[in-house]
Amino acid sequence: MTVGPPLPADLQTPCLVVDRDVLEANLAGMASHARGLGVSLRPHAKTHKCLEIADRQLALGAVGLTVATVGEAEVFADAGCADLFIAYPLWAAGSRGRRLRALAERVSLRVGAESREGVELLASTLAGTATAVVIEIDSGHHRTGVTPEFAGEVAAAAQGGGLRVAGVFTFPGHGYGPGERERAATDEARALGAAASSLRDAGLEARVRSGGSTPTAALLDPHTLTELRPGVYAFSDAQQIELGAAGWDSVALTAAATVVSRRGRNLVLDAGSKVLGADRLPWATGYGRLLDHPEARVTALSEHHATVSFPTDGPLPDLGSVVRVVPNHVCTAVNLADELVVVADSALIDQWPVAARGRNA
Q1: Can you say how many angstroms the Cα of residue 41 is from the centroid of all Cα atoms in its chain?
Q2: 8 Å CB contact between 48 and 54
Q3: Burial of 134 (0-12, 13-18, 19+ CB in 10 A)
Q4: Is the distance from CB of 76 to CB of 84 less than 8 angstroms?
Q5: For 307-329, how does the pLDDT look when each residue is reduced to its tens digit (9 = 90+)?
Q6: CA end-to-end span of the chain
Q7: Hey, where are the domains in the chain?
Q8: What integer pLDDT is reported at residue 257 of this predicted model?
Q9: What's the confidence (pLDDT) of residue 352?
């Protein structure tokens, strides 16, 4: 199986390659999906960390960007993005608090919160700004967020401290499991609905009910959610393929790697964990897949090499040939790269810096 045109002949491997046409189809498809549901799209930029892709998402109608850290927010604010949501429970102390306030003074900013202590610190840091607080809800992933019934209590504490409460948000991360996407989407809608009721009981309105992930985006409940925050959809990855959330034709980013060794039905490539990332969820069938050889699996990674195992029949790529590896988790792969090589119709057309690479604080 070959998906799309071949790579340019003169690539220096290993490198991360973006198929521009597939990327643009992915971006347009999610924008259309959100419009059809009548919900706002606020893509998570931690996946691509790239100004050129953010510009495309905003041009297609995204209301703003979601980011994971203050550092990412600074990069996109510097590039002119005027509406940002830092989607985790910020602890706004020390230099981070000063950086957060500086951001709040130049962009429309939302921040996540989940505790009285957290909102008290945010209130002292952001007093006098128009920053909106969004209360994080645990909808079943059990990472961060309050139970929905306590959302009103945290929201009331935020309002009492002088903060503007915009609503509630969650991450249905338990959808990253085989057969779990439907349950996670149902849990998400139920939790956000209960959290909105909790805010109403506290005399507040949850105008924003934000959720979504790439695995659950197709199953979103538009009667409950007002905002969708997927990230991986821009590129797709091996996890999305194995979850059934995406097809091979949606893979926009691959690692170009050269076959440097052959041992029986095993090949060794010149792209290891420092290119592909090392994420492998327990259910994953390998450390990555090959776009043009879906039957193969990346079975082992070292820092600079990947071992790929093929089934017992069929031709193998030749020594010195270049193959396209689909990372398990594209977000971690991108964060390891300085730039993305952009191709279209087998020609190298651009190179996009990973502008927010390493901005993890």
Answers
A1: 13
A2: yes
A3: buried
A4: yes
A5: 999 998 889 999 999 999 999 99
A6: 41
A7: 21-235, 239-353
A8: 98
A9: 98
Mean pLDDT in residue range 171-192: 97
Coil vs helix vs strand at 183? helix
The highest-level CATH class for domain 21-235 is alpha beta
- By three-state DSSP, how is residue 208 classified? strand
List all residues 6 or more positions away from 264 whose beta carbon is below 8 Å from its beta carbon.
none
Residues 53, 42: contact at Cβ < 8 Å?
A: no
Distance CA 87, CA 304 (A): 33
Instruction: Outline where DSSP puts E strands in the chain.
Output: 15-19, 40-41, 65-67, 83-89, 108-113, 132-137, 164-170, 208-211, 227-228, 253-263, 266-269, 288-290, 297-301, 306-309, 322-327, 339-344, 347-353
Coil, strand, or helix at residue 127? coil
DSSP H or E run through 159? helix 151-160
pLDDT in tens, 50-67: 999 999 999 999 999 999
Contact of 40 with 31, CB cutoff 8 Å: no
For 27-66, the DSSP string reads HHHHHHHHHHHT-EE--BTTTT--HHHHHHHHHTT---EE
**Residues 70-122: tens digit of each pLDDT:** 999 999 999 999 999 999 999 999 999 999 999 999 999 999 999 999 999 99
Token pair for residue 277? Answer: 């990332």
Torsion of CA 125, 127, 133, 138, to 10 degrees: 40
Rounded-to-integer distance, Cα 143 and Cα 359, Å? 22
Query: Which tokens belong to 38?
Result: 């009548």
- CA dihedral sign of residues 83, 84, 85, 90: negative
Q: Classify domain 239-353 at the CATH superfamily level.
A: D-serine dehydratase-like domain (2.40.37.20)
